[in-house]
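Quick one - inputs below.
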Amino acid sequence: MSETYDFLFKFLVIGSAGTGKSCLLHQFIENKFKQDSNHTIGVEFGSRVVNVGGKTVKLQIWDTAGQERFRSVTRSYYRGAAGALLVYDITSRETYNALTNWLTDARTLASPNIVIILCGNKKDLEADREVTFLEASRFAQENELIFLETSALTGENVEEGFLKCARIILNKIDSGELDPERMGSGIQYGDASLRQLRQPRGTTTTQNKQQCNC
Amino acid sequence: MMERAMEQLNVQLSRLTRSLRRARTVELPEDNETAVYTLMPMVMADQHRSVSELLLNSKFDVNYAFGRVKRSLLHIAANCGSVECLVLLLKRGANPNYQDISGCTPLHLAARNGQKKCMGKLLEYNADVNICNNEGLTAIHWLAVNGRTELLHDLVQHVSNVDVEDAMGQTALHVACQNGHKTTVLCLLDSGADINRPNISGATPLYFACSHGQRDTAQILLSRGAKYLADKNGITPLDLCVQGGYGETCEILIQHHSRLFQTLIQMTQNDEMKENMLRQVLEHVSQQRDSHYQRILTSLAEVATTNGHKLLSLSSSYEAQMKSLLRIVRIFCHVFRLGPSSPNNGNDMGYNGNKTPRSQVFKMCARQMAVETVQKDECPWTGSAVFDPMELLWHSLDEWLVLISTELDRNRKNPSSPSSSSSEIASLLLKQREVDPSGSMPSLLDAQTAMETEVYADGEDVISMTASRLSAVIQAFYMCCSCQMPQGMTSPRFIEFVCKHDEVLKCFVTRNPKIIFNHFHFLLECPELMSRFMHIIKGQPFKDRCEWFYEHLLAGQPDSDMVHRPVNENDILLIHRDSIFRSSCEMVSKSTNEKLKQGIAVRFHGEEGMGQGVVREWFDILSNEIINPDYALFTQSADGTTFQPNSNSSVNPDHLNYFLFAGQILGLALYHRQLVNIYFTRSFYKHILGIPVNYQDVSSIDPEYAKNLQWILDNDISDLGLELTFSVETDVFGAMEEMPLKPGGTSILVTQDNKAEYVQLVTELRMTRAIQPQINAFLQGFHTFIPPSLIQLFDEYELELLLSGMPEIDVQDWYRNTEYTSGYDPQEPVVQWFWEVVNSLTQEERVLLLQFVTGSSRVPHGGFAYLMGGSGLQKFTVAAVPYTSNLLPTSSTCINMLKLPEYPSQEVLRDRLLVALHCGSYGYTMA
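Output:
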């Protein structure tokens, strides 16, 4: 039967070609580094159910191709995304310089409330670094982004990136800033709260809270 | 002493009298076993006086258990409702809690059979209501199973625990819910039954109610606060409702747990769910309220979009995602069509007015759109908000196709391989094909396909990896477009779409023709689109096209396993053998097309026989009758074996009705895969297919005239002084009349420049216009069973095979009766290669070869020795032709001649011959 979760969030992974987007996704889903990664063709799909703040959230992640020739196709996936990981490669200034363009795309094409996390990937290649942490974090501040440096190779901060994004979205739901019922929000309810009722009462307090939702 | 004896005698006498008067014994036998069988019938009939009498003074043990199940008389009394006997037995000390072999007490039996009074008495005598039988069932279980609420009401007062479980952990509430006894359920709940009690597999009362679609019971449970719980295997009440197709119960569940709505929608992605059941449930729920209808469709559209996007992810499973997407879209369209906004309901949509979304995005493909624009104005494409979520998917689809088109362009402009010249040739050929779609040479076609593969090599990965996935999304798109249109109309939006992406779609199917059969079903429904792909479709194996043909012809008809259903006596076609044509015509016209499609049952008057054999015989005899010269409907062609409509058939005043009938019979035969015993002329097959005839077809009715037409075409007529005009002289009842071939034709001279037009017009006059009414009537009948769009899949050669079957060909006989000319002789290596190749061909290919050379798939009676040409016996002949590279074999059908180039090797010969055979209809006319 179908999976159990409270919410489903639609996520995007965007950024220039070769920044390691697919590897980040692979690391997040499989906990492994993808050795021989080819260029992504079009858009790839992955999903994982995570626990954030006592809620189960299914992340439906669309990993887009960074190559210019796929740009028109990947853009068609932006609409209705709740969150995005914007990825650049700390060893390539070119990918960093392209961030403004990607950001504009995301802000114009996706929902205006989209939560964007900036990921400086390939943190493990310190020796080849071309973009400093300070510089990138300043860029993040100016553009109101959360910023992390990640390594798809070691897995450092990968989980954090995705979870942080999910957590912010959940907070926005709680505060009423985001309405999951609105079409195109990139958020859907699951039916977990109903299914969990069959467990003995009082095992966790969170579940009792969820009962009120139904 | 004497007195005693007398007294005894008196007693005996009175016994005897009593016994005789009552027709039974008046004294109970001594032993219990015999006694009990004496008493049992009396207890069953509640003859309490007799029983009481017999028991008086007897030593019978009232608790004596007897029979296989070891019941006491009290059991019997309780079971049968013999309340007086029951009381009697109880008074005499019968044990009210005595259990039979299955553990049942008299109370169980009284409860099971609803013996109210007996139950009351048993309780008075302290019967224990809490005793379980061997299966753990108590009296209240029995009452609950059968919904005896009134009795239950009395009983529960005495019950210590209404939730007593049977061996399966089931309480009375469980069984009452399963059987949907509403008042019983209420009574149990009022008596404190646990509404959420799970049985040993975790099934709750609600679960039981849902598993059997007990809507009202579910409603009661939910309104009394029953929780929505899954069983131990995670199967939820909703799962059960959907599996059983219980729409009403689902509706109740959703009313109480609105989140289940989303779960229900998500189920469409589950491969294990039965699609028809799920559809039934969604149908029902959508019909309850407008808002439900809207919400179901919107949610389905969202799920479809996600699925479609997953399908476009290359790492997803193509098979699973494709099936899932198409299933969801099928359900979506189904529900949509039912709803208030379906155009078929004649209802105006109240939701989104007449919005024509995205017409700006899809630019009109001006050239082809003239016809469709009219359509569009008449029936504006009215969108509905429920489709909106899918626009994302269609948008992605569009972007993907644009991307692929760019890839194709890029590869064509900068070919990575050094074969730039060949790519130029290919694009040249591509253009050539567009200019002349019908008549390009097979060799060109062949070369072009080869080139295309080469040219696209660079974009290969992207295209080959995405083609099937994109095609499946296109299929989904078509379904969504179509369900907004009245039946049988193609959505202008979809036509625009195909026009826009014409090149990419053609590229897909050229590389992987299976896509056509798997996903491009729209072609069969839109002739205007079909024509664009016809050349690719025609290039597919005959077999594949046959399968596709029947798959669509029979779509919507009940499955073939329905064949065995009993035939309604009224639907049997009763045929008189002595007037087979007339009586068949009568019977067929009386029946309805729908019935005839479902199946044919034939019985000959005065005969018993029925079944497929008789149907076969009927088609066989009837097809012979249709060409019977007495009816003057069809005439023999010059070779004597093939037939075509008789231009003078009007001697029979009813002839057009008969042509209609003949068309129906041929259509029916094809529909039911029955072969007929008629071979038509090539030109008539073309008429059936709607293909224009050409001058060579004339040879079947007038071989000499055909030769003359050929001569005009072959020679320069400028200086011959023929003084031909665009007119012919015809004999109208003895008077010669000049008949123009086109307006003003009598004054237009035939010249070297316009002679081709002249030949075509004169051919049409001879072949078509003369029998136009007959053709039209025939086709009208034929098309009632075979839609024109479907028959188009075949050429005239294949149509003959479809209608008349594949003949057996004896290659030895063929070899023995073949002649050689122009330099060939049987010893020639090329000739020997030829026969080796013929031997290695499949039966189907041999028939193609025979058709290619003789124009017919038919081997005459008596074998190849009797092969006829335009003017008498004409054996199969192989003629030599000088070889130039890529040259294909050609033929002259009127003299049964194969012109076989002197190929350098058997391989080349085989290759070229097969190309000629498989592209027969293209290469033929040019050669």
